Amino acid sequence: MTAKPEWEKFKVGELSTTRWVNPDCQQLTTVSHVAHIETAKRIFKDGKINSGLIFDKSKLNTERILVAWLSPNHWSDGFRYGNVRFNYDWKTLIANKRYYWVESLAYGVKACRILVTDEDRSDILEEYDPTRRDGPWWFDEINDNHYWNGNYCLEIMIERDVDIDDCLTIDFVNHHLQFCNILPLHCEDCGRSNLNAGKRLISYILSNSYNFPRKKFLGTINAEKCIKDDVVYIVRLIMESLPDYIDQYSGDITSDSDVALPLAKSILSYYSDEDKKNCEKLLSLFDSADEFIKTLEKLCVKRFRVKHLYEEDYLS
Ligand SMILES: [Zn+2]
What we know:
Elements: E1 26-27, E2 30-35, H1 37-46, E3 48-49, E4 68-70, E5 84-89, H2 90-94, E6 98-107, E7 109-117, E8 126-127, E9 137-140, E10 145-148, E11 153-158, E12 162-163, E13 169-172, H3 194-207, H4 215-218, H5 231-241, H6 260-272, H7 276-283, H8 289-304, E14 306-308, E15 313-314
Parallel strand pairs: 7-11
Antiparallel strand pairs: 1-10, 2-5, 3-12, 4-11, 5-13, 6-7, 6-8, 9-10, 14-15
Helix pairs in contact: 1-3, 3-5, 3-6, 6-7, 6-8
The chain binds zinc ion.
């Protein structure tokens, strides 16, 4: 008699017949990659989530397999992976791929790992068939719906780089107060709120010139409008907090000056790094708070095509 596959312990539960959703049988429509701010800056620069070798206790840590990590989990007490969340459509991400069971690992909440790949990995891993409904991910073929067992952490390992152009939306989440997957207890982002992370990342994007998928910030996820994650709201917060950095504007730079835009970009770059001192020094070169804000508006039009920061009115 062959042993039962390991994944049966994590099998999805019964589908609810009422509006109540059973935690062990939730619809699986999107998965996300969550990154720390510094990593997210690199992701924006590269235009993709780079796959990497596996370093933890995984059985794949001796294989030359490069993966990007995504998950449907929502950590209501804060994410341990960082503050910046890239959300992807599940069906698109896994279409025409092969699926393999990797392992289950216990750290607090038990984690189940599934590899999604173009490669044939049957020499090292057992194939996972989601239509059998005997593990943490079930594909209901008849109704074309996917479900997962939310009582466990489902970690999806995608064996390729994942483009940020392909994501549905980008938003910000809270970092857990103490837990961090990179530097437990020493991570400078521990306890950082979604709004604070948004201000740092949006100011970084405004301070740079490379292409980025601006529309992803303007979208919504699950049709729920979340004003806190709205880029306009975040830019307003930056606008409102920056002029307060200094008491007096002693310079003569106005929004029409040639150096106004490069100067504002430098200020935002320092702001993103939380370097208040240098922020203050450069900010004081403006003629007034008004002139700085006008310059910031020009930058927003250029980078996010946001027309009026106070009317939530976007250019197409
Ligand atoms: Zn951290």
